[in-house]
Design goal:
By secondary structure, this protein is an alpha/beta fold. It is built from 15 helices and eight strands.
């Protein structure tokens, strides 16, 4: 029989970091300012050379445990997470990369949901911010209750396996440590980071609990290693992982009454690839504008235009050139205004019928 978790459980925070001197200060403050105090913090420095370690060691708090390792790189990020996990003693584990940060109420609010012994993972809205910490986007929790809460167990996979991106952002996640260790720790998958493979595996173990408020801020900046990864290769690795997952966990999926048609799934992702992959340069250019990287944005859109020439794209490219010249994003505000007008006209036509 499951036992109710202590009302004030120890929470272990895992932070891998590499050359984040510019941002680690805000990360540190966001944890030290938490309204919940029963935590330990395992910070694993992956060979920083920019003084990140000095900033961390400058904060004297016996709850912070700082470790330094020779650079293992992004390709071994899951291994770095698992190395930190071995040092964890808490009932709950939360993840916070060295350039991200949390709202002050995060630990206090999220720890309470684990009073339900069936919950193995909790997440919430994620605020995407730029290098200055200014909000540029915000994620959403699925409107389908079964998928959002993984109830019945395994239901979330119906979204995770078909959606273009995961609805469970890493900085918002808190998990039950016993469940995480029971599955062997963070799941390693070729060409993927720790998050998606681990969340999918935990979806077979228990229920999720989404929270409606912001549970983490994910910083997007030009130097972020994940931002500079090969997105096309990442896309294909993700599809391969999903197919392997279904094959490797067929028995457990059968127990849960869940089945996936591999052939149909393959067709689904082939269609998404045909739609999405040609626009990788376009989407990255749009993001670079939001981050204020005007030169990179214009150069990326030029690559997209070369492969996808048409009058519409030429016009958009002109806006990129103007944005680069005046150092002000002219593309995203116009796109947002166009979308708003489209919704307005659609609503007006609906009322006139």
């Amino acid at each position: 029989m499951s036992h109710r978790i202590d009302k004030k459980p120890l929470i272990s925070i895992i932070t891998p970091t590499f050359n984040q001197r510019e941002y680690i200060g805000q990360t540190l403050r966001s944890v030290l300012d938490q309204t919940y105090s029963n935590w330990e913090w395992i910070i694993l420095d992956d060979g920083s050379t920019d003084g990140t370690g000095e900033v961390i060691r400058g904060h004297q708090d016996n709850r912070i445990r700082y470790f330094f390792q020779k650079n293992a790189g992004l390709s071994n990020l899951t291994g770095t997470y698992n190395k930190a996990l071995q040092e964890c003693r808490g009932e709950l584990v939360a993840m916070l990369d060295g350039d991200d940060f949390w709202p002050a109420h995060k630990l206090e609010t999220q720890s309470k949901v684990f009073e339900d012994p069936d919950v193995v993972l909790s997440y919430g809205l994620c605020r995407l911010v730029n290098h200055k910490g200014k909000k540029i986007e915000e994620t959403a929790v699925p409107t389908n209750h079964g998928i959002a809460f993984n109830d019945p167990v395994g239901t979330a996979l119906k979204e995770l396996f078909f959606a273009k991106s995961s609805f469970i952002p890493n900085p918002t996640v808190m998990v039950k440590r016993t469940t995480l260790t029971n599955i062997g720790g963070f799941v390693s998958a070729i060409g993927l980071y720790h998050d998606f493979p681990t969340w999918t595996r935990l979806a077979l173990e228990g229920k999720f609990f989404p929270l409606p408020g912001c549970m983490g801020c994910w910083r997007r900046h030009r130097a972020a290693v994940t931002l500079n990864s090969n997105q096309e290769r990442f896309f294909h690795n993700r599809v391969g992982y999903i197919k392997n997952f279904i094959g490797n966990n067929r028995e457990r999926l059968h127990e849960l009454g869940i089945s996936f048609d591999i052939e149909e799934l393959g067709k689904h992702w082939k269609a998404i690839g045909a739609e999405r992959l040609p626009f990788l340069h376009y989407n990255r250019a749009i993001l670079m504008l939001k981050l204020g990287a005007f030169d990179e944005a214009e150069a990326l859109f030029q690559k997209f235009l070369t492969d996808n020439p048409c009058s519409k794209h030429v016009l958009i490219h002109f806006l990129f050139v103007v944005s680069k010249a005046i150092r002000l994003d002219m593309v995203n505000p116009i796109a947002a205004a166009k979308e708003s007008l489209g919704k307005l006209f659609s609503s007006t036509r609906g009322r006139q019928r």
